[in-house]
Give the backbone structure.
Amino acid sequence: MRHTTGKRNAAGRPIYVEIDIGSDMEALWRHTQQPKLHERWDLRFTEIDYLPKASPEADQDFLYRTRIGFGLWIRGTGRSRAPAFSADGIRTSVLAFGTDHPLSLIGRGGGYWRYEPLPGGGVRFATRFDYSARFGRAGRWLDRLLFRPLFGWATAWSFDALRLWLDRGVPPAESMLRAKLHALSVAVLSLCWAYAGIVSKLLFPSASGELDMLRAAGWFSGGEATLVAALGACELLLAGLVALVRRPGLLLAQAIAACALTAVGIAGTPALLYSPFNPLVLTLIMLAATAAARWTRDGIPSAKRCRRRPGDDAIANIEEERI
């Protein structure tokens, strides 16, 4: 069996992912070695099917399929060796894989899974794999700049989904649903803040009524335009922070800011309540999105909880989630 994990290829360094899982060895082994359990948590494979073996000692051949969207699938083949067991309890599973599908950037590759018992209980689960990129120099550049980082992220995200399943009882389908709802909620919040900043304050402050509201208040003595532009820039910055940071404290702070801005606006111009898409309606939408983002934040996988290089402890700590 040939594989390419022994050296760095022309496209980039091999992908390495490692995570500590509190589960016992047998449960982890079962969820990673049984195809129908494996395909439930691994983003990289949609279907995995073992082929009949000539003998119990023979290598295990398998077929895999990965859905890439728009009704398209990548099909490939693989082969795994009989697992190796060391005297200190470490298990190693080695495999090779590849595909000749015309849409696949991956050619041939290989790697291993390593299961190391931890002294205090649990297992350190690690993988290292590499592959050759197809389509010549263009394929190698695409792999280096986009596909390989995405493939590494998908591996790490899947490992944490497996950890949540085994350690906290959150099924991968629920993790995926939580992740999608969280991303949608955060996107709604970010777009609302960006719209309020760009359209209402930076591009069309007069048409939106922002300038008239400040002038009616009479507090700023001709500096209304500058203040509106500054508020628009702040709201645009907040839109970026909400999209990228996603901390509970920031979610609470932006909800308070939305309520405060709405209260000031309505107090200064009560007629805003009669417009079809008024600030109160927008704020209620944002508060609902905030609640959804906060509720779905707990129990979703994160690639950041995995180590991406051997011995890397900078991101090794697993955050506490409340399910």
